[in-house]
Amino acid sequence: QVRLVESGGGLVQAGGSLRLSCAASGSIASINAMSWYRQAPGKQRELVAVITRGSSTNYADSVKGRFTISRDNAKNTVYLQMSSLKPEDTAVYYCKAGVVTTYLRYENDYWGQGTQVTVSS
After folding, report:
1. Spatial separation of the C-alpha atoms in residues 114 and 121, rounded to whole Å
2. Between the CA of residue 109 and those of 61, 84, 94, 112, what are the distances in Å?
3. Confidence band, pLDDT 50/70/90 cuts, at residue 75
């Protein structure tokens, strides 16, 4: 079993910052790409940022220059530093990890339960 647990969400004023964390635990052999998605009410879930095991990154155009994704491979943790937040960043943020488990020697995607980010104007 693999479990992803997000933390760090909350309520912040426009222009403020938040840092999200997502820690993976369980029967993990290795983790490939880790990513953050978000879903606002009435909208589809969208990719926010992705980071490879070698720390190459890619961002949605809407967050470029404001959000930074990073990871600590030793801790099986991915972070999302969010700055200059806007009301339109309000959403539930989910992390996803491509995990090779110790019992299935191929990659599967695992999701966290989500953390709410609310940006007030």
Report:
1. 23
2. 24, 30, 12, 10
3. very high
